[in-house]
Structure formats: C-alpha cells, structure tokens
Amino acid sequence: SLADGKPVSLSPLESQPHSPRYTASSQRERESLEVRMREVEEENRVLRKQLSLAQSRSPSHHRGNHSKTYSMEEGTGDSESLRAGIVAGNSSECGQQPAVEKCETIHVAIVCAGYNASRDVVTLVKSVLFHRRNPLHFHLIADAIAKQILATLFQTWMVPAVRIDFYDADELKSEVSWIPNKHYSGIYGLMKLVLTKTLPSNLERVIVLDTDITFATDIAELWAVFHKFKGQQVLGLVENQSDWYLGNLWKNHRPWPALGRGYNTGVILLLLDKLRKMKWEQMWRLTAERELMSMLSTSLADQDIFNAVIKQNPFLVYQLPCFWNVQLSDHTRSEQCYRDVSDLKVIHWNSPKKLRVKNKHVEFFRNLYLTFLEYDGNLLRRELFGCPSEADVNSENLQKQLSELDEDDLCYEFRRERFTVHRTHLYFLHYEYEPASDNTDVTLVAQLSMDRLQMLEAICKHWEGPISLALYLSDAEAQQFLRYAQGSEVLMSRHNVGYHIVYKEGQFYPVNLLRNVAMKHISTPYMFLSDIDFLPMYGLYEYLRKSVIQLDLANTKKALIVPAFETLRYRLSFPKSKAELLSMLDMGTLFTFRYHVWTKGHAPTNFAKWRTATTPYRVEWEADFEPYVVVRKDCPEYDRRFVGFGWNKVAHIMELDAQEYEFTVLPNAYMIHMPHAPSFDITKFRSNKQYRICLKTLKEEFQQDMSRHYGFAALKYLTAENNS
C-alpha cells in the first residue's frame, strides 16, 4: 500500500504494456512502487549492518545454546521521561539485550519475621517458582519463628535447584533499633538497610523483595536489568505510585525528603559490591541521623531512609519501569503502569488492607494472587534440565530407598508411602505459649483432615491446655482452614494451639506421620496422645497434671491410660462427672469404645474394675490393645509403614510395651468419641481385599522387625497374634 493508502495490484497483466488495462495512471503507480521498494531495501541493508555490529559487541554473542536472552523493557533511568508517561517505559530494546545465562543463579533476599509473614513468603516463593527457569538462591533474614517454619518447609518441599540460607534477624536488631519507626512492619522493616553487611561479602548483586509481592513473570527478566546500570547506579527502584512524598495527602502532612514522588522499596535491585565500595553503611546512617533530628521517626520504615539518601545522591538510582512494582495501596497511580495483562510483571500489596484495597482492577489482581495462594506446591518440584544442581542428601537418600522397592509388588504403594516426604508448614497460625514452670504441663496431640474441622471448637472448650494438631490438607484446603479459624472467636482466642499443615500427596492418609509431626512440636514435658473425634472430660487437663506428679511420670516409664467411651448420638449432654457417665452407661446412652465392633482394642483397660476404682491400677498388654495414653515427650514415634486404617495405634502401644512402659489406668479420667461418617480409609479397608492383604503383610513385617530389635522379649507378640 502506498502513502496515499491506495492498494497496488500486481496482476500479470501489469507486465504487458499493450494491454488495454495498462493506463498512464497504472504506469505512475508502478514507478512509485519501484522507488519505494528500493528505499525499503536500502533501509533493510542499514538495519542488517547495525544488527551485525551490535551482535559482535555483545558479550552474549559467543554463548551459543547455553544462554537465554530475555527481551527487557526499557527503564528510564531518570524521573523526567517517566513523568512524561509511565507506560511509555514499556517499550523493548531489541538487539541490545543482555543475556541471563541458562544456569545462572538468581539471588533473592527477603526479610521475614513471625507466623503471618512466613505464610506470605510461601505465596511469594510459589509465584517465583511458577515462572522461573533459573536456579534460585534465597537469602532469608528471619527471626527464630520464621526460621523454624521456613527451614522445615523448604527441607520437606525439596524443590530442585533452590538453595536457602538463613541470617539471624534478631542479631541485626542492634543495627537499626536506634531508629524510631511508626510503620506496621516494626523493627524488621528497617533491616533491608543493612544487607550489605549481612549478606556474604562475595555476593555482588541481589534482588530484594517484600513478603507481600506476587510475580507475574520470570524473575530472570528482572535480574537482567542489572546489566543496564551505568556509572554509579547501584539501586534499581520503581517510583512511588502514591502522593505520599509530595506532602499533600492531608493538612500539615510532612513526609521524609524524597526526589519527586520518591521511590518504593518493595522491589529493590542492589549492586552490593559497588555499594560496599561507596561506604553505603556510613552513607545511610549519617542521612538517617541528620533527618531524625527533625523528623523524629520514620513513617514508612527503610523506604524513608532510602529516599532521603537518594534525594542527596540522585545518581545512585536506576529507575525501573513501574510495572516491576505495581503498588496496590489506596489512591495510587498504579493503573498507569499497565494497559494489558501482559504488561504486568510484579504486583505489590503494599496496603495494610492487602486484598481489600481499592483499585478498579483489584478483582483481577486478587484472582492472580489467590491462584498462587491455593496452587499445589508439589507441582513446583520441577527439574531444571541441563543445569547441574547441588547434591541434596535428603533427595539422594529418598531416591535410593525408592529404588530398592519392587514396583511389581502388589503392596508397592503402601511401602512407598513410608518414604514419601510431605511438604510441611509448621505453626500455620500464631502460636504463643510458655509451659508451666512446675514441669507438669501436658499437650493434647491429635491429627485431622478437612472433614473433621468442626471438632476443633468443641475440643478447645473441653481442654484449656496446649494443643498440637497436624492437619492433612491440600494448598486450597489450607486456605479454607485459615478462613475458618480466623472467623472463629473460640479458635482466635486461643494462642496455645499449634496448627501444623502437612500437605496432601499420594493416595493414603499418612496417619502416623501426622501423629509424629504433632508429637515432635510440643513444648511441654508430657503429651496426651488423643484422636480428633474424642472430647476429653471437662477438667481433664488439670487432672492429668496432678496425675503426672502423683505417679512420678518424670522418673518412671509409665503410660497413663484415659478410658475411652463413645456415643451414637450427635447431640449429647456431656457428662460432667464419673457418676453421671456411669449412669449414662447403664441407660445405654454411652458405651465403652468400640464395644460392638472391636472389643479387643480396649478390653485390657478393664472397664468393670474402672467403674469402682478410686486409685490408679496397672494393666498388662494384650494383643490388639490400643488405648489413649499420656506419656513423656521422649516416647517412641509411631511407625510410618501403617497408613490409612488399621494397626496404626496398635503397633505403637506394642512398641511401648517392648520398651517396658507400665500401663496405668486413671480412675477418674475419661474421654468420649463423637459419631461421624465413616472415613474414606475405613471404607477402602472394608471394600478392598488387596488393602487387607497388604495390611496383614505389613503387620507381619513389623512383628519381625520387633523381634530383631528387642530379641527374645518380643517373641510374645508373635505368640499373642497367633493365639488371638
């Protein structure tokens, strides 16, 4: 099409001058087209020459197939062109793009403290892992709580080509505690200032992220921006998208000094090596001391101090395009950062309101965030093919154990479950409890899945002491649980309940793994090994603490038995005393637990004796005995080979007996099982013959292991099994 917009016909007739259609007008159009074609050919020749020169200068030109080049959007590097139009910065620099090596490690630093921030970090990491194609090295500046939670999480997550290092945030407090800070992030909101000192001296560059960040693209694209830094540029930042630093939000609003609108520190690119040479530590301290003389405190934590330094030294900053930090707080210009979904790179929920912030596209952003919040983290265990990863001892041991299993074995899936590593998030909600100083404290231990959530409030009303719960949930169910708990006055009023999420994987309910997780994370010397379907009698917590002293549990190997009963009624007037319970037994409102279907499980408790007992009495182990007991926290773990339904508690009680624990029944304690629909696992047990065959095989193997481990004393278990 020519400049005048008329289409040009190139039919064969045009090459025939004597054709009737060949007019003077057609001749002029043809000549005009030939001139334009020569011009285009000349432009193409010049472009090819420029591209050739650019490639010969580029260090990535010789990397062949080992490098991946990312098309990077142009950052302005100064404020003026950004003010002329933020979105104009979204253009691409083709032909001059720096490369990020395929296997180059990208370093990310995050400050994280407490229970809530640990949950936020997981969502951020999921969004990064989802898009990434490079090895990642996370540097986590964490307090003791976050370190315990995240160390366990990443250890059990086992994501290939991801390395985690922790730095003690509590040790850094003295570096910034002299700065008064009004921001809700507290003292931890100032710790990004000391990263040049905190991170390894040989680390040259790092991307620093707030915990309330969500990535919508490969983080390697952001890493590549480091190549654009020129001269003394050492900080990569996005302009602040609110009017905060303009000082016009309200009357007498007096913000810290900043260059124009200032910069937001939710996403920072730090050139650490250059910052150290510039004496960054001295630079920010002197600036902070000077400004605090008049400002008295920071309002936006580290961001105020970063901006004050940049105001004095504008040459330090490389201004990133604003889609690298789309700030979703109220009254921001974030909508100018994108025209289309494809423009979005990083979303920053930098309002205390978080997902409830005002923005006309907030529903889209919220859905993007919720996608990662509820995304199955197990799917992110992707190998980075072609990139050598560091040897992971846990992963290698797991592969070795799995390789020794026979995949043709009909019980292969049962055996495999024993070695499955389940991603585990400890203390999913805030936990705060100091054990009693008299060393008699007891924690109730139980495990559950989503279909038993309704039992939590009732148990909390019956047991005022500490509780340790392992919940077997998917990522989406974990968020449903969080919303349920946060909406419950009963659960939110209790800070002594530890909720530990074990994420779903495989086809079996790993009941004994769950029990072990809950047992391992108690802070008291004793534990009551219960099940989620039981309500303890009112006052049981205090009664057990007295029994611990009375029966000298600290110095003897005892397992104190709490007799178990059950009701078939969904609505039960819970007995407030032993006398009331005995009356309900006589009336048929209550029964001894599993009296109708599995008498052997609790028969050795000797309920006839318990009716009239006023003092604790000893009972002997018998085959299939599975009482609920109070033991010291150093008791053996449950055997993980038993999954789903069958023999999971029986095996544990057998091991306690093998270790010469003395079983003692408490005369004034009781617990009542509440009715519920049959679990999926008991249904499988009843309907699947192979399930029952495999359970029998696992029982026999467990008994053989007991004989090998405990010798002659363990022969009685084989004999008892044969006689039962």
Distance between the terminal alpha carbons, to the nearest Å? 94 Å
Q: Let me know the largest β-sheet.
A: 9 strands, mixed
- CATH topology name of the largest domain: Spore Coat Polysaccharide Biosynthesis Protein SpsA, Chain A
> What structural class do you assign from the helix and strand content?
alpha/beta
Low-confidence stretches: 1-23, 54-74, 78-98
Judging by the overall fold, what is the CATH architecture of the largest domain? Alpha-Beta Complex
- Shape descriptor reads elongated
Mean pLDDT across all amino acids: 83
Query: Could you state the CATH homologous superfamily of the largest domain?
Result: Spore Coat Polysaccharide Biosynthesis Protein SpsA, Chain A
Strand content: 15-25%
Estimate nothing, just give the exact number of structural domains.
2
The count of DSSP E runs of length 2 or more, i.e. the number of strands, is 25
Q: What percent of residues adopt helix (DSSP H or I)? A: 25-40%
Number of helices: 24
Q: What's the arrangement of strands in the largest beta sheet? A: 13-16-15-14-17-23-19-24-22
CATH class of the largest domain: Alpha Beta
Report the C-alpha radius of gyration, rounded.
34 Å
Biased composition (Polar residues): 12-26
GO molecular function, one term: glucuronosyltransferase activity
Protein name: LARG1 glucuronyltransferase
Membrane topology: Single-pass type II membrane protein
